[in-house]
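Service request form, structural biology core

Requester: graduate student, group of Dr. S.
Request type: structure prediction, single chain
Budget code: on file
Notes: please return the result as structure tokens.

Sequence provided:
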Amino acid sequence: MGRSRFDPGYDNRRPWNAGRLVGAKRPFKVKQIWAIRFHLDHEQRLRDRALLNLAIDSKLRGCDLVKLKIGDVVSGGAVKPRAIIVQQKTGKPVQFEIVEPARSSLLAWLERRGGTLDDFVFPSRSDPSGHLSTRQYARLVDEWVTAIGLRPQDYGTHSLRRTKASLIYKQTGNLRAVQILLGHTKIETTVRYLGVDVEDALMLAEGVEI
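Core staff response, request fulfilled:
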């Protein structure tokens, strides 16, 4: 239940975040994503390969990703190239793409998994009618990160949400496009999320000649 501030020794307790990194998690680099893919393919983990690819393409928060149903991403027996869901946090719809590598891995997983359009894409291990929990999703990402020699303190589920968004911003400098893809209601949120600073702005400006 935690301590009360009136308890003896309250002021001497060690802060819960002492020595921990609790800031924004880093986005993955392309070579790191491919290292994780190689690891999952070697281990024949179809579900995790599909989960990884869909997390990167969809750029969804973990709470939305784990609740995706087969009908959200499949139509007419094929995986959709684009999908749309209503975000839990904002209550607003967001669209996302599912490119070919993700569609292939997702189809391979769903053929193995079976189920109806009303079933969750990633079912719970303990409750077949439920979905993978956000906690279990986080544990899986920690496992992938550790497997390729990275520190789990530096990466997490939000790293997957940020990865493609960060690459799009670096390649285009288009904050508005990234805002739409992430489903942010305010551009300021996107700026903070990507860690855009004065140096980024100057580098973009230096690349434009008039």
